[in-house]
Amino acid sequence: MKEMLSNRLAPFISKCCISSLRTSSPSSSFSSLSPIQPWLFIGLGNPGEKYQSTRHNVGFDMIDAFAQSQGIPLATHYFKALFGEGMVDGVPVLLAKPQTYMNLSGESVGPLAAYYKLPLNRVLVAFDDMDLPCGVLRLQPKGGFGRHNGLFTRLRSVIYHFRQNREFCRLRMGIGRPPGQMDPKAFVLQKFNRTSRERIDSAIKEGVNILKMVATNGLAEVARLSNADQKYKHLRSHDLQD
Q: With helix as H, strand as E and coil as C, how does the chain read?
């Protein structure tokens, strides 16, 4: 898939734009200085050591892995989020991990996108999804809430702060369904067992490549190819739960 998408070359980015990425505070002129509109990649999760490595925090894990792969430090705190900015093959990329707790993520995401004057088709939100088997990814240009109430609650905050606009991109990260009669709220706040952790770690590696290709090649073709690949993974994983 990567070879099929690698033919397009990113346009030239001026030194002025690159230097603007290294300032100590966010700059509203970021997008205006660059001939390419930035991407904003956001991972949802809960802050604090208590929630590290839990199912609910795979969005955080995705952004951490992507930031590390691209050498982008998440060292500043803007708009209630841990924030970083850098370049991916000549494309400006903003990374954010809202520190508001999951169900209030829109309080960070909405003002951040507005500050940089980004259209929502340049905003991608990564989050856990119980409607997908553990380790399966789904890239969507836009969408609703999914079936379960937890997803409705946290995306409702994001959508509310986008003025009810649902046109932002989503990277849904499957965590599987809770076993038996287990409370979904308890399930998402637990850590993965060893088998599930291996699946998630593998999915995160795939997700890093997907995000890089989204930044450099655009969403539509990447979604078509990656979702076709994940569809077969979904079929193989359909009966595998935690």
A: CHHHHCCCCCCCCCHHHHHHCCCCCCCCCHHHHCCCCCEEEEECCCCCHHHCCEHHHHHHHHHHHHHHHHCCCCCEEECCEEEEEEEECCEEEEEEEECCCHHHCHHHHHHHHHHCCCCHHHEEEEEEECCCCCCCEEEECCCCCCCCHHHHHHHHHHHHHCCCCCCCEEEEEECCCCCCCCCHHHHHCCECCHHHHHHHHHHHHHHHHHHHHHHHHCHHHHHHHHHHHHHHHHHHHCCCCC
